[in-house]
Structures are given as structure tokens and as C-alpha cells.
Design a protein that fits this description.
This is Nucleic acid-binding protein. With about 140 residues, the protein is mainly β. Bound molecules: zinc ion. The site of zinc ion (ZN) has 8 residues, from loops. Zinc ion (ZN) binds next to loops.
Length: about 140
């Protein structure tokens, strides 16, 4: 394998056969969620069965990429590469428009502009879903 970085990176996903679909879509700029055919509830992170009713009748669908900010924490220190070169960054929990909560990172937003309920949209730098303020960057 060529191009393996000398330093391990802890920010990029390792896809397995099940999550490959999710990460391939993310590379295309699409956030996939899973919906249960039995109870019709949506969940995230992706599982092979419904976490609400345990049905295995779950399938992928494309989310809107819209979310609102639930809570966040500005991380000032993280020694794992490459995070240490990115601090401070905003680790966050967002409420997806489809219902589930998602752990993510807020980008293109000055940290002092973060507030509960901030309207967000998904972006996919390096194929990893993150969120920015809807309608464009604020501040830095
Ligand atoms: Zn279900």
C-alpha cells in the first residue's frame, strides 16, 4: 500500500463491510442514515438492526444534512495526530433534522458564535461529515 502516512491519524474512519456504504456516500457529500421498516424510526450511528425495536428491517436513506446545535465543547488540547495541529476545535453533538443526535465537529464558525439551536448544514472535508452554520461561515 502506498501513501501510508508515517504518523497514524485518528480522525479518519476505518470502514468495514457494513459501514463502507456510509463512508462512500460521505465522500460524495451525502449523509446516510438508517430507517427501520418496522417502527419507522431513524437512528445514527448506523447499526445492522433497529436500536428501538430490534428489527433487522433497516435500510439506508440520504439525510437532508440539516441539523441544529445541541451542545459543544471547544477542545484546546488533544495529543493524538492530527488533532494537536487543529486545536482549538469545536467537538459537538447536533440534532439531525431526521431526529437522531450525532457526535461531530463544527467547522467554519467562530467559537464565540456557537449557540444552542444554531442552524447547521453538513460538509464533508476528507469524506468525514462535519457541520457548519447554514448559509455560510460566520467569523473565522
Ligand atoms: Zn424499529
Amino acid at each position: 500500500m502506498t501513501g501510508t502516512p508515517a504518523t497514524p491519524r485518528y480522525d479518519l474512519p476505518e470502514a468495514d463491510a457494513f459501514t463502507r456504504t456510509y463512508w462512500d456516500a460521505a465522500w460524495q457529500g451525502v449523509l446516510l442514515l438508517r430507517r427501520c421498516g418496522a417502527c419507522e424510526r431513524v437512528h445514527h450511528y448506523p447499526r445492522e438492526f433497529c436500536p428501538h425495536c430490534w428489527s433487522e428491517d433497516v435500510s439506508w436513506f440520504a439525510a437532508t444534512g440539516r441539523a441544529t446545535l445541541h451542545t459543544w465543547s471547544v477542545v484546546h488540547r488533544n495529543d493524538l495526530p492530527p488533532f494537536k495541529d487543529r486545536t482549538p476545535y469545536a467537538a459537538a453533538v447536533v440534532d439531525l433534522a431526521e431526529g437522531p443526535r450525532m457526535m461531530t465537529e463544527i467547522v467554519h464558525c467562530a467559537h464565540e458564535d456557537l449557540r444552542p439551536g444554531l442552524e447547521l448544514e453538513a460538509v464533508f472535508p476528507e469524506g468525514v461529515p462535519k457541520f457548519r452554520p447554514r448559509g455560510g461561515p460566520t467569523g473565522a
